[in-house]
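ok so I'm stuck.
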Amino acid sequence: MYDGQRSLSPKVVFSNLQVGEIQILSKPRRIAGIWAFVVATRLVDGKLLVLITSRQPKETLVDYAQRWQIETLFGCLKFRGFNLEATHISPRDRLSKMIALLTIALIWSLHTGQWQHSLQKLLLKKDGRPPISIFRQGLDFLRRALFYLDAQPQLFRQSLNFLSCT
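replied:
not stuck anymore, here's the structure
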């Protein structure tokens, strides 16, 4: 970033930022020849998130948080669980029905993952993050319950009973 006299890296400018804190530079900066606002926050994992925008910086951070939730949702629908793209469904009405079914499955997986997590918390990795997401924990439980339906029908019944309470 260029402050009018010298170029500084975001790592230096935001070095004192603590986890969860937000810092907005007081005036626009010239970045790659464009004047823009700069906002930064320190994420839970310690990484620095820096956003550059021509809009109001606070709004940009809120919008980015919403966008990240949507990216996570699409990740679950596409490649981290349901492989939606592998279906090659293209007619709108069929795709709409498939997304509706996957949404129910996603919510069921999330609730089941939260339920499983409350029963048995996963050991955290060295970076402080869980080895799998709550979504993955729930989806894996539901997959096991369906796969072993003949041998262990109580697993599936548990997940149905749990779903009926939500």
